Amino acid sequence: MADHPGQRIAARRQSRRMTQRELAIAAHLSVSMIRHIEQGNRAPSPSSLDSIAAALGVDPSRLDPAYAGTSHRVHATLPAISAAIAGYDIRLDPPTRPREELREDVSKAVTQRLAAQYGLIAGMAPSLLRDTLALLHHSAGEQRADAAGLVVSAARCVDAVAYKFGAHDLSARLIDVMRWAAVQTNDDVVQTSVAYTSAETYLAARAYRAGQAALEHALDAAPAPVTASAAAARGALYMRTAVVAARAGAADTAYEHLGRAATLAADLTEGIYLGTAFGPSSVRIHEVAVAVSLGRDHIGRALDVARSWKPADDIPAERRSGFYVEVGRAQLWAGQPDAAFESLKVARRLAPQHVREHPWAREDIEKIRRLKRADVESLSSFAEWIGAV
Prior knowledge:
Among the domains are: about 1-55, Orthogonal Bundle (434 Repressor (Amino-terminal Domain)); about 70-185, no CATH class; about 315-389, no CATH class. It is mainly alpha-helical.
């Protein structure tokens, strides 16, 4: 594993088959600076790290997990995102890029969402929303349904940013955009996938009983699982409903929904279906999430899973990171603060932005610091990075 940002930069550069000179040109820096940074003789400044990350096509936090500048960049972009969807149902100018280019950009944003690279999504979010909405308004027939699907995907990517960074009102408006566009896809599976995302509104408001009822209604309306995408959409919705039911304290119902998700997952290969990971591994991760959501009396189940199983590298970084955050909480409740800290460090390595904005991670680091009492340098550094001190 890379020990400092320079090693991560070098590894990423080499994986892209770039020379130091090519990276320097793309990042608008000198070759000498790139060389010194990669050797660890010089720490990159925030602006240099931003430039290098942009040249390598990753968020800066993937090169330096201690990087904390993403939050400022994301929050600075939120007003422009809000403006981009203010008149989402009004036909204005045509899109500024062709359909296929827009499709590629939406696909790129989906990949970034699954990797929890929220800063990169935020940078392209306003124009991506404007152009996908414009494409929808300037399309007809089958092309209109296709454009509506691009709006759903784009809005979901941007919603991930808004939700993770606490802009819950904006998240709810983006979900409204998704619902509006999903109807125009004429695809019940897409509408089921939007219902999965809509759970965020209830989770943010802690309206768990209402959320459970709404998601169960969506399950009733979901298409039969006769295709892989329909089965995955239904299965993912079962997983999300299980978590919301667990937050509502409905243990039996939560485990019933989780069991139905497991039944559907048994016949599918773990993969990404309409932008959502689903399969046996995703269900196992949600087993931990349900147990932790139900509270301390259920952590034995979460710890049993964690002792015998770990998510493989082919699971999206955001979902793997969430698994370790939730395992860490179970370990902390079980009186294992050292193990909990190790889990949080793994989570941060996988998806730094996801962990830094995760309220449970911040709460748990505060508790670990109180339990440890001694001023452990690595623990204090983590707490400062996550904003717990």
